Inverse folding.
């Protein structure tokens, strides 16, 4: 018997749930050949505010978790991606072999960052020599809520900007790739079932030019990653808005996502806490 397939409705991912946009809007997603693929939710500034609230609520618990625990959760995400390789490859489109290679690279990237979770403090922390009878210790701490405008690369690029933010204890609000958002929402389904607390990662789909300025100006956002902003004027206006509460800002750069990522993205949204303690006599 013939049957009608059940078409998937792609929604937002906020606070561990999958709501529709409060505006009720959506936009068509097309393939590289211009063929209709699906409709994705078009987030509004109200959705962006809700995502920031969710990220702020999740921050104390996530930043207070042990680095080892955060690393285990990232590794769990990699495990679940491994089990859904074929689905992600299909959503990425293009040649099957190239798509599978990108999924594999994404899994490897998650494992790489998971391994750094309990080591970054040793690399970035220090015992500082001082002229006095004191111990002086510097340790890295997460910045807070980080807004991330994801690059056009819909999976490897997305994970390459999100993983270093959360592995160090930050929470985030992500604006997914505008033309290719489907892999981001499917990734959200993985996040929702991988022990990652709700609100640590919040994913919005929609117009970059509509969402980025509101996140840049939001007074409860502590960091702003503009990697995916291709419009120079939009990037400049976001930087200017971010200056209102002295957000840490990562400017747009062209990157080879297949290259060794280094630790720069992990340290970009870290603060340094220095503690003085008297030596015992």
């Amino acid at each position: 018997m013939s049957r009608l397939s059940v078409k998937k409705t792609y929604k937002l991912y906020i606070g561990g749930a999958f709501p529709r946009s409060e505006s009720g809007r959506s936009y068509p997603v097309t393939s590289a050949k211009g063929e209709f693929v699906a409709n994705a939710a078009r987030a509004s500034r109200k959705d962006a505010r809700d995502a920031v609230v969710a990220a702020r609520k999740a921050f104390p618990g996530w930043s207070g978790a042990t680095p080892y625990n955060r690393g285990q959760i990232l590794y769990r995400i990699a495990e679940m991606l491994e089990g859904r390789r074929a689905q992600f490859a299909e959503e990425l489109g293009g040649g099957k072999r190239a798509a599978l290679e990108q999924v594999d690279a994404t899994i490897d990237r998650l494992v790489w960052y998971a391994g750094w979770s309990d080591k970054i403090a040793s690399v970035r922390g220090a015992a500082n020599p001082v002229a006095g009878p004191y111990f002086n210790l510097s340790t890295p701490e997460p910045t807070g809520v980080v807004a991330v405008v994801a690059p056009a690369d819909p999976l490897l690029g997305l994970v390459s900007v999100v993983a270093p933010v959360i592995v160090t204890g930050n929470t985030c609000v992500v604006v997914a790739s505008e033309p290719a958002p489907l892999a981001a929402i499917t990734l959200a389904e993985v996040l929702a079932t991988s022990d990652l607390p709700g609100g640590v990662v919040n994913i919005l789909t929609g117009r970059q030019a509509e969402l980025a300025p509101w996140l840049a100006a939001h007074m409860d956002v502590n960091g702003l990653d503009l990697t995916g902003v291709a419009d120079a004027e939009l990037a400049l206006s976001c930087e200017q808005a971010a200056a209102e509460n002295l957000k840490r800002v990562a400017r747009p750069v062209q990157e080879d996502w297949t290259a060794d990522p280094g630790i720069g993205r992990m340290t970009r949204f870290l603060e340094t806490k220095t503690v003085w303690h008297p030596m015992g006599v």
Notes: The radius of gyration is 20 Å. The chain has one domain: 26-257+264-278. Residues 26-257+264-278 form a domain with the Aldehyde Dehydrogenase; Chain A, domain 1 fold (CATH 3.40.605.10). The longest helix spans residues 96-116.
